[in-house]
Amino acid sequence: xxxxxxxxxxxxxxxxxxxxxxxxxxxxxxxxxxxxxxxxxxxxxxxxxxxxxxxxxxxxxxxxxxxxxxxxxxxxxxxxxxxxxxxxxxxxxxxxxxxxxxxxxxxxxxxxxxxxxxxxxxxxxxxxxxxxxxxxxxxxxxxxxxxxxxxxxxxxxxxxxxxxxxxxxxxxxxxxxxxxxxxxxxxxxxxxxxxxxxxxxxxxxxxxxxxxxxxxxxxxxxxxxxxxxxxxxxxxxxxxxxxxxxx
Length: 247
Hints:
The protein is mainly α. It contains eight helices and no strands. It has one domain. The two termini are 15 Å apart.
């Protein structure tokens, strides 16, 4: 495995090489969002509003993950987690205002920083390919869930109690994992269960989107939920790929 310094230098070189493209993509997403905001609220469907918010939120989270890849220490992670939780409630309270949308981008950056250590570890272990695979897989599952929920008209509200209990179970297992070293098989199983759970959350949240009022405040709330689905599915998929490559 490469030394940390050598790998960091290579990563910075790769990022600097494509930085103009990344900046152009982010600026393009923000311009698209501004365009959606300037249009009459009723003239754009809720799905367009949510995707217009979700795309730059994920993009700013990616920037946050890059800058947070060397983040270390429990205190720093707890601080970011507290900022994320407080920020989420503040954004929700601001409805569909311009300030809520600006803070949403900052919230995405903070949440991305929390992903930074895992992303940094994965890059050092397996290179950038595993990150691309995880992002591609997560995006494909999200789009597939969106199609199923919005095109079929199936009522996925029955999933809510199952998903809630599953989430509590994953949290408990995660807390146990802080003190107990799980085997590779257990980690793989936990990752698969996590992916199934958040695929279910994708279905449920897109179902909610299809039944929600077409307003910017609802778009902001749904964007927060879908970002959390995306980030958690990405985490479990990345962990699955990392564990599956170990012997």
